[in-house]
Design goal:
Blueprint: E1 7-9, H1 18-33, E2 41-44, H2 46-54, H3 63-78, E3 81-82, E4 88-89, E5 91-97, E6 107-111, H4 117-125, H5 128-145, H6 151-165, H7 175-193, H8 201-215, H9 219-227, E7 236-242, E8 253-258, E9 270-275, H10 279-284, E10 290-291, H11 293-298, H12 300-317, E11 321-328, E12 331-339, H13 344-356, H14 362-368, H15 371-377, E13 381-382, E14 390-393, E15 395-398, E16 401-407, H16 410-418, E17 423-427, H17 435-440, E18 443-446, H18 454-462, E19 466-468, E20 474-476, E21 479-482, E22 485-488, E23 492-496, E24 501-504, E25 509-510, H19 516-528, E26 532-536, H20 540-548, E27 554-558, H21 569-577, H22 581-605, E28 610-614, H23 627-645, H24 656-669, H25 679-696, H26 708-713, H27 715-735, E29 740-745, H28 751-769, E30 779-784, H29 787-791, H30 793-799, E31 802-805, H31 807-815, H32 823-832, H33 846-863, E32 868-871, H34 879-887, E33 892-895, H35 900-916
Parallel strand pairs: 3-4, 16-17, 17-18, 18-19, 26-27, 26-33, 27-28, 28-29, 29-30, 30-31, 31-32, 32-33
Antiparallel strand pairs: 1-2, 2-7, 5-6, 5-7, 8-9, 8-11, 9-10, 11-12, 13-25, 14-24, 15-19, 16-23, 20-21, 21-22, 23-24
Helix pairs in contact: 4-5, 5-7, 6-7, 13-14, 13-19, 19-35, 20-22, 21-22, 22-27, 23-25, 27-28, 28-30, 30-33, 34-35
Bound molecules: phosphoenolpyruvate and magnesium ion (MG).
Length: 922
């Protein structure tokens, strides 16, 4: 049997080997292949990482032998030897996962230095200061990454040394100072880890490789993976590469450059660089770097070369690139390239530009759109009415605006957010350790670091507003000063990621509008997709918004949502609590004109587009006061009654407060207050209410008297709704508006239920429309959400003009998970423990629920070949679920207005992917 190949030289790989080599390794290999100036190196595979974990955290057999052979390759290419006291080869050891996880795992630079080789490096470079600086950096990184000694312990020693010598800048530190710091660092390691810093360079290398593998499972990497849905099993590769130095003089430097502006998409080199600095200095935000344009002035020929290479890389990868480079003694090296993270706005802009420049096709542009980008696309901005108090202006690192209470540490950010307080995380700089705080906060504000610093990159990826490098802020513990203003923890501030403004107090925010580029993409999507996109909307405003986003009609109007307004709820409560049909009819008669107006509003907003109206669905108790609260009130009133019995007549209400409290209480119950009755009277009313509410109580309301069951037991409710719909349709038709009602019966499980309700609707239509019927076409269909309905779809289809799959209820009933309880209880645990792959209320369960849908569509169409079918559960706005709907041959999906653009794109992607026949790309 052939030994497993754990190690690939850069010359042996390519970008297509990303799964095995990780993104960074695959790109280094690709760049080596196309002749770019990449320092020589090799990659230890992700397979080795998986084997490492499978064998209880031990490097698999053969890895170090293959590493050693590959090291000889680097030695030959560089003309140096690893561990050679005279001309030592130094290498970097970096993680590189399949999916980009910036800064989440560990890196060690300058490996190969020890007490001997450092002298060789000093002599070879004729620069002892540089050599000892490199050595102390290695000990620090090794101590932190391999031996888990906090970085702060090393930094404290550096700060103390600078203080003792009276230095304010690092540039003042001498070779001897670094040398003495090296000794102190080594002592620190011995004290803290009880092992010496290894002088054996091969031991350094082996431990570093293990540590990078272990960093796959550090806390921040785990959190990041969860947030970005990256599978835990993927593992990371390790890249080992000859060091080049940006920090050995003013003819050296390092930087990060994007081939286009990652915030706006503008076609212009964008990035930062630092002279005489090592790679990590730019990303870590320790020194604020210079804009890349300055490199054009300081190193003109190298800038030109960089611009050429950037263009070459962009054309080669057919995408905007994020490139790390180093200049070592006037020679340019490319250390990394990857698809640049970008704001959603920039993503659209760049994709459209790339199509226009002939670099990619429209289909490629559409397939590239990420769900998260679309999620974030509609960023909020500050409503400019009024002049906000601008405290400071920093770098506009990630667009969008946010208001929140200032907090200065990540744990507090997380806690306060859990308590429901919006927060802005304020830090001098963020590190990957702060990821949970960034995730929790509304936005991030830092006083240090540039546009490519950690805070900027992470916030941009998450679509959170971020203002960076706001150096005029003086952060001091739990407060910051800006000019003469002091902002303390808990004070409200706002940030504007579009222009870097930091504002005192809370500001009004306005929702974003569709950009021209997104409009263009959506138009391309519409040319391709076959799945129609409808919206779930219950009022004209949402309906209009959805239309602007491109909705082709209303796929679900939940009429119960129309009943929550202050003018309706009391009527609805009275209707529910009615003791007789006559009494119920009285209240329904009051609701009729209100519903009539509601439906007319929807028809007007959707003129000419179908409006699918679902008759009343939820259990009735949802409209009534809470039983527990009512009984508490009852007992309070009983106690008051006893007290009042002891008070002389006429003195019951001694303050306005008690009177108004009573009035408010009655109003909440939806009942009239007549001259503030005494506690005894009110108690009697509450008692009666309580009795009725208890009567309506159900042990499993979601499986109880709801949906069509309600319509069958109390037909007058559905009759009123149908009458309101037809009256509104007739009124609109008379105005020249095309009303296209599609009436939907919820929760059908047996064809007889649908048959009964359909005849009810038809009967009312005949009565209301009479001779006008021809001018008001309508359809009657059903929700398919009870598994029995799916299984007997061929029977149900006989009576239905359309099927709309209620995948929320269908998921609930197929899994037997209560949708009201599961997510808050066991479901999160299930997903975390990987009992099931996703939350099935978010991502449609293809194997179970999906099978029912496919069955129902197929059965239904045996009876009616052109039966219209769609999904109106929350899954209609989820990309993966939309892919399923397309594959299952549904006609449409329906989702909330803000998801409509996403759904249009996802529907196009589904079509393109099925056209290409590739499952993998999904
Ligand atoms: C559904 O069950 O999927 C549905 C759309 O109805 P609701 O969520 O209102 O029960
Ligand atoms: Mg439902």
């Amino acid at each position: 049997m052939n030994a497993v190949k754990w190690v690939f030289l850069f010359q042996e790989g390519s970008v297509s080997m990303k799964e095995l080599l990780g993104g960074k390794g695959a790109n280094l290999a690709e760049m080596t292949g196309i002749g770019l100036p990449v320092p020589p190196g090799f990659t230890v595979t992700t397979e080795a990482c998986r084997a490492f974990y499978a064998s209880g955290r031990a490097l698999p057999e053969g890895v170090m032998e293959q590493v050693s052979t590959a090291m000889h390759g680097i030695e030959d290419a560089k003309g140096q030897r690893f561990g050679d006291p005279h001309n030592p080869l130094l290498v970097s050891v970096r993680s590189g996962s399949v999916s980009s996880m910036p800064g989440m795992m560990d890196t060690i630079l300058n490996l190969g230095l020890n007490d001997e080789t450092v002298q060789g490096l000093a002599k070879e470079t004729n620069n002892p200061r540089f050599a000892y600086d490199c050595y102390r950096r290695l000990i620090q990184m090794y101590g932190n990454v391999v031996l888990h000694i906090p970085l702060i312990s090393f930094e404290d020693l550096l700060i103390r040394m600078k203080e003792e010598r009276g230095y304010s800048e690092e540039s003042e530190v001498t070779a001897e100072d670094w040398q003495s710091l090296v000794d102190q660092y080594k002592q620190l390691i011995e004290q803290e880890a009880a092992v010496p810093f290894p002088q054996n360079v091969n031991e350094q290398l082996e431990k570093a490789i293990e540590a990078v593998f272990l960093s796959w499972n550090n806390a921040r990497a785990i959190i990041y993976r969860k947030a970005h849905r990256i599978p835990d099993e993927q593992g990371t590769a390790v890249n080992i590469q000859a060091m080049v130095f940006g920090n050995r003089g003013d003819d050296c430097g390092t930087g990060v450059v994007f081939t286009r502006n990652p915030s706006t998409g503008d076609k212009i080199l964008f990035g930062e660089f630092l002279t005489n600095a090592q790679g990590e200095d730019v990303v870590a935000g320790i020194r604020t770097p210079l804009p890349i344009a300055r490199m054009e002035q300081e190193m003109p020929p190298l800038y030109v070369q960089l611009a050429e290479l950037a263009d070459k890389l962009e054309r080669h990868y057919k995408d905007m690139q994020d490139i790390e480079f180093t200049v070592d003694k006037h020679k340019l090296y490319i250390l990394q390239t990857r698809g640049g993270k970008r704001t959603p706005q920039a993503a659209m802009r760049i994709a459209v530009q790339l199509v226009e420049e002939g670099i990619i096709t429209k289909a490629e542009a559409l397939l590239r759109i990420e769900e998260t980008h679309l999620d974030q696309l509609l960023h909020r901005a500050i409503d400019c009415s009024g002049e906000p108090e601008v405290l400071a202006v920093g770098l506009p690192a990630s667009p969008g605006a946010a208001s929140g209470q200032a907090v200065f540490d990540t744990d507090t950010a997380e806690h306060w957010t859990k308590e429901g307080k919006p927060v802005i995380l304020v830090r001098s700089e963020t590190t990957p350790e702060d990821i949970h705080g960034v995730l929790a906060a509304e936005g991030v504000l830092t006083s240090r670091g540039g546009m490519t610093s950690h805070a900027a990159v992470v916030a941009r990826g998450m679509g959170k507003p971020c203002v960076c490098g706001c150096e005029s802020l003086d952060i001091d513990g739990n407060l910051f000063r800006a000019g003469d203003r002091t902002i303390r923890e808990g004070d409200w501030i706002s940030i504007d990621g579009a222009n870097g403004r930091v504002i005192a107090g809370k500001v009004g925010l306005k929702e974003a509008e569709l950009s021209a580029e997104l409009e263009q993409m959506l138009q391309w999507a519409d040319e391709v997709r076959t799945l129609r996109v409808m919206t779930n909307a219950d009022n004209p405003e949402d309906a209009r918004k959805a239309s602007l986003f491109g909705a082709e009609g209303i796929g679900l109007c939940r009429t119960e949502h129309m009943f929550f307004g202050a003018d309706r709820l009391p009527l609805v409560r009275h209707m529910i609590l009615a003791e007789s049909k006559e009494e119920r009819l009285k209240w329904l008669a009051e609701l009729l004109p209100i519903q009539h107006k509601d439906f007319a509003g929807l028809f007007r907003a959707m003129d000419g587009k179908p409006v699918t109206i679902r008759l009343l669905d939820p259990p009735m108790h949802e409209f009534l006061p809470n039983v527990d609260e009512l009984s508490q009130r009852y007992y309070r009133l009983a106690a008051q009654e006893r007290r009042e019995a002891a008070v002389p007549e006429g003195h019951e209400f001694t303050s306005d407060r008690s009177a108004s409290t009573k009035a408010a209480g009655l109003a909440t119950a939806g009942l009239d207050s007549q001259d503030f009755p005494s506690a005894a009277v009110e108690k009697a009313e509450v008692e009666q209410l309580l009795r009725k509410v208890r009567l309506l109580h159900e042990a499993n309301p979601m499986l109880g008297q709801r949906g069509c069951r309600l319509g069958i037991v109390f037909p007058e409710i559905y009759e009123m709704q149908a009458e309101a719909i037809f009256r509104a349709a007739a009124e609109c038709a008379a105005e020249g508006i095309r009303a296209l009602p599609e009436i939907m019966i919820p929760l059908v499980g047996h064809v007889n239920e649908l048959e009964l309700m359909r005849s009810l609707v038809d009967r009312i239509a005949k009565r209301v429309l009479g001779r006008e019927a021809a001018r008001c076409p309508y359809k009657v269909g059903t929700m398919i959400e009870v598994p029995r309905a799916a299984l007997t779809a061929h029977q149900i289809a006989e009576k239905a003009d359309f099927f709309s799959f209620g995948t929320n209820d269908m998921t609930q009933m197929t899994f037997g998970y209560s949708r009201d309880d599961a997510e808050g209880k066991f479901l999160t645990h299930y997903v975390e423990q990987k009992v099931i792959p996703h939350n099935p209320f978010q991502v449609l369960d293809r194997e179970g629920v999906g099978q029912l849908i496919e069955w129902a569509v197929q059965k239904g169409r045996t009876v009616k070949p052109h039966l219209k079918t769609g999904v109106c559960g929350e899954h209609g706005g989820d990309r993966q679920s939309i892919f399923f709907c397309h594959a299952a041959g549904l006609d449409y999906i329906s989702c909330s207005p803000y998801r409509v653009p996403l759904a249009r794109i996802a529907a196009a992607q589904a079509q393109l992917l099925s056209g290409a026949g590739s499952q993998d790309q999904k």
